[in-house]
Amino acid sequence: MLSYAVLVIAGLLAGMINAIAGGGTLLSFPALVWLGVPPIMANATATLTALPGYIGSAWAYRHDIRAEGSLPLRAIVLVSALGGLAGAGLLLITPGDAFVGIVPWLLLTATLLFALGPRLVAAVRARGHAVIGPLVSAVALLLVAGYGGYFNGGLGIMLLAAFSLIGFENLHNMNGLKNLLSAVLSLVSVTTYATAGLIAWESAVVLALATTLGGYIGARQARRIRRMDLLRLLIVAIGAVLTVVFFAL
């Protein structure tokens, strides 16, 4: 019963955090490790269980999803899927504990980029460039998607940071697209992980149901926030807390 309670609570919180800012896997991943699942299998399982929540959140944001910047929506989805496939393949050849060490640094970088995103975009536009070009935008998304395929924790923060840098401005639009791309990335990654036998299915079922419910609740609540500055502050705060937690692990 304790194991089920841990999985349900971790799943609900992870789903809500994923819907609002991303990073919920940094709750479900440690929960699985604490229950005795090996780290790489815990990462793969946490990615799988986040997938239904991403889909539920993307559905809640379906009216807000649109492209901004220099890349059309189809190109953004395709580039993200390719990056996710590459990242998942890289994880399969990584030693058991090696990938954990770089995660807090990546999350810290993403949080700082998202916090400074509006100023960086304003600086780019002040130099006479309305938006970052399609090639640079595609490379930025490819790198973030590769990270997401490699380790799902903090993916939402990374995507939001990338969106800020390539010209996105509407936070509800960014959140909706973040959830859609997270679903695409997770689907590609999970297919790779499952083929390699890296899913702890018994824990995955409970965690997935809780994460789905949490994702829908979080997305519904986030869309009611009208103060963009408050939503941005909330996202930065979540990123900062998750960074500190993961440095402490």
From TrEMBL:
Its main location: membrane. Pfam families: TauE. It is found in: Cell membrane. It comes from the Bacteria. Signal peptide: none annotated. Keywords: Cell membrane, Membrane, Transmembrane, Transmembrane helix, Transport. GO terms for cellular component: plasma membrane. The chain crosses the membrane at residues 7-34, 40-61, 73-93, 99-116, 128-145, 204-219, 231-248. It is a multi-pass membrane protein. Belongs to the 4-toluene sulfonate uptake permease (TSUP) (TC 2.A.102) family. This is Probable membrane transporter protein.
